[in-house]
Specification:
Layout lengths: L5 H5 L3 E6 L6 H14 L4 E5 H9 L14 H24 L4 E5 L5 H13 L3 E8 L3 H12 L10 H18 L13 E5 L4 E5 L4 H11 L8 E5 L4 H5 L10 H18 L9 E4 L3 H7 L7 E3 L16 H7 L1 H9 L12 H17 L3 E5 L1 H12 L15 E7 L4 E7 L24 H4 L3 E3 L4
Parallel strand pairs: 1-3, 1-4, 2-3, 4-5, 7-10, 8-9, 8-10, 12-13
Antiparallel strand pairs: 5-6, 7-11, 11-12
Helix pairs in contact: 3-4, 6-7, 12-13, 14-15
Bound molecules: adenosine-5'-triphosphate and 6-O-phosphono-beta-D-fructofuranose (F6P).
Amino acid sequence: MPVYSISHVENVRVCVVMVGLPARGKSLIAQKIVRYLSWLSINSKCFNVGNYRRQLAGTEDINAAFFDSNNAEGLKYRREAIDNAVTDMMKWFSDENGVVGILDATNSTRERRDRILKLCRENLIEPMFLESFCDDDELILQNILDVKTTSPDYVDKDNEFATQDFLQRIKFYEEIYETMDQATDSDLTFIKLVNVNSQIILNRIESYLESRIVYYVMNLHIKPRCIWLSRHGESEYNLTGQIGGDSNLSDRGMRYAKKLPDLVLKSLGEENKHTNLTVWTSTLKRTQQTASFLPYKKKLQWKALDELDAGECDGMTYEEIENKFPEDFKARDDDKYEYRYKGGESYRDIVIRLEPIIMELERQENILIITHQAVLRCLYAYFMNVPQEESPWMSIPLHTLIKLEPRAYSTLVSRIKADIPAVSTYKEKGTSQLGEASGPNISKSRDLIKDSDVV
Ligand code: ATP
Ligand code: F6P
């Protein structure tokens, strides 16, 4: 039976209209929503009006004065940029079955929002406004230093110029900005985040899809933190090439468990060595044994982190599966993401059960997750935006600690390998033999990955 996503059930299309002054985190929130919904197989896309404006007007002569509402030429370009973005978005909704389009711009006046509202209604698309309101001057300055001084608008400009110019740009926007409120905007669907998430105002959230977006956005925070991911140490089943089960660690797996505290310390660095982590494992013995030497007090078990359920194939080797169920073996190779083991699960099923884990991960700070090959691939795919056709084929070796550091628009990845050998559990497409991935290691070919020394 196919698994449908929520958008199929409701058949709604939503346009999330970002609202807010510059440097309020709108692009960051918009990009995270797209990553989250895409991971859940909901066709989503962000239309960043700043990029359209740069295409039309270039960046050479752009400074704060361009954004003065009395600058007729600036206004002309800005109007054209939003019109082009909206046109492309409407085309994407109709030609590419778009479900959630995000219009990432300041949309700071009611006149602008009314125009978008009208267009959405004419095209039978639900408009949902998402405002980020922030009057914390320190945070705004920090945001400018974090992301705006390196924006394409300030190539070849020094940081001091960029900061002052951006502050002046904000002033021009402030002159015309109309924040959303329940009195004037009572008819609209909107969510207003005040000073990150210290207050959240919701108005007329109607569909299930809208409420998922609201719930996700409510859980976001911007405190710096890291997430560590590791597979369990090598297990007895790994040694025999069997899948699933609930076996103990092998001797080498136990050595990895003993080494893991050192790997974590190394990844923290000297200055952060006292950082406290929460450890999450699955309910299976091999992950708990792997966590058993970690000195952190808070350890939680999640059923949702258990390995992919191989149903009738649980306990078999890939070779046995190929001999006993050749059609299933081929079907899985043909579409590994969708294939569901008889009486078991598919990768898509794992993503669905991992959704609460992702929500909780967004809320939490430093977390170390010890889980299994398929589950780790799905978690990694969320953070690194790996498409479904690639994620089940990623090579994520045993005895390797992965550290993820979320940044404004990206995630830094570093991997620390323990100097303890382990079998490979990687099965290439078209064979039942296990071995190292022969093609490019997908998780390695992505940007920003740093491999640290073997420890
Ligand atoms: P612009 O209108 O110039 O495109 P923007 O509102 O899209 O600006 P971003 O580029 O997304 O702003 O700014 C990213 C910065 O905002 C990051 O440093 C991030 O930590 C911070 N940030 C994220 N969420 C919020 C929020 N809810 N309130 C304030 N700042 C936030
Ligand atoms: O072989 C280890 C293991 O965790 C199995 O228990 C699980 O079925 C398998 O990996 C998942 O990997 P794949 O989806 O590549 O078969």
